[in-house]
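Anyone able to model this chain together with nitromethyldethia coenzyme A?
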Amino acid sequence: PNTLHQRMSEIVPNRLSDIRIIRTKYGKGNLGNVTVDMAYGGMRGIVGLIWEVSLLDPEKGITLRTHSLPELLPRLPRGRRGSEPMPEGMLWLLLTGEVPTKEEALGLSAELAKRGVVEPWIEDVLDQCPKTLHPMTQLSYAVNACQHSSKFAKAYASGVPKDTYWQYYFEDCLDLIAKLPLIAARIYRNVTRAEGAPPVGRGLSVDVSLDWSGNFARMMGFESDEFDDMLRLFLTIHCDHEGGNVSAHTCHVVSSALADPYLSFAACMNGLAGPLHGLANQECLLFIVKMREELGDNASNDQVEAYVRAIIKSGQVIPGYGHAVLRKTDPRYTCQKEWAEMHLPDDPLLKLVGQLFEVVPRVLAEGGKVKNPWPNVDAASGVLLNHYGLKETNYYTVLFGVSRALGVLSGTLWARICGLPIERPKSLTSEEVVRLFGPE
Ligand code: NMX
Ligand code: MLT
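re: yes, here you go
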């Protein structure tokens, strides 16, 4: 079978030629007007980015290289074990636009396992982190430290030609994706170790006979086949959500200054760590657990509704609900909910997830302020993780981040392939708005 690099090398020249034609034909096409409100309003609705690997439809949800999630999941190759797709297959798809064969995905799996090493001093740095340092901060810290071995940064400094940049970028992206399970598992083991127990130290390493996700599960200390499958699904579906979300956009803008993939991805993780973005998966499970503590196991929908209303009245958001672009239930929520209904139908927290779905959209829709009252990706994921014994909520966003590497590094690599320039939109001051539009 082809290696991913061989296939990319074949695809890149053709795609670049397509893009030249697209730009010649449509380069002057108008993508819409920008109002002052849009500039104050988080740039909502402004189309200002090219992101080759995925596209978000407000009604239908994410399409990954034109494939919707429900259509794609059954088609992605399965590995030697388990019944859920290997995230490696998703990576291949995002980078090439092609669903890989099983052999191609397994080849990529083996390649990632080979690349899965971390410099010992970075392991030491992680071992020295206080257990109380948030796992996302530790992740960002370690990824920044891995920049020490960036092949792109070295090649750039040595003055390699511009049209070869992507080759070095590709190497860094694959190396980084390969290192992430090891880094993230070390963080998990350190933050969950018993009081007074020593940090992981030496001895945590990738098993070349396992897939990327299987390795991650095993290094974290999880052994069950069902956990492995749940993690494969989680890592596959959280990978990408077009280019404008905070994490992808951050990766894109940082990389546009030709910062290497390590620096770009560490910045991306800092954005994902915000509670309105990826941290919402942590917030969401905490919310459900607290609600259960207060309402017990047999709460009625009326009690859930009263609880939700009180939270909103206190000025807090309901985590796991709402979206800046989506206007319907997130298909990533649906897919996790269906998985949970099949594998953990009696979990009391799942019952509450279902009750929230019956109550929250109606409550949020009242008054018309919230533009999307429906659940997003984070509304169900914590219940799955918790069910299989991964109960440390402050670790949940790390799992999101490991998955997100597949998408943001693919999108960013394609930006480098296309030679997109440094990103630099124009900003205004409020005085300038008045000068432009106000009375003389
Ligand atoms: N609960 C309560 N209020 C909400 C919610 C919610 N879930 N969602 C939106 N609103 C409020 C929002 O705070 C804003 O209020 P105000 O004008 O007083 O500032 C108003 O509704 C309008 O917001 P929208 O235009 O609907 O949403 P926006 O595009 O600004 O923000 C989110 C999108 C996702 C940040 C927002 O819906 C939210 O805060 N949701 C809860 C947090 C969450 O689940 N985030 C995860 C998103 C997915 N991910 O993983 O990244
Ligand atoms: C994501 O997966 O990045 C979130 O749904 C947030 C977004 O798309 O803005």
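The chain has a mean pLDDT of 97.
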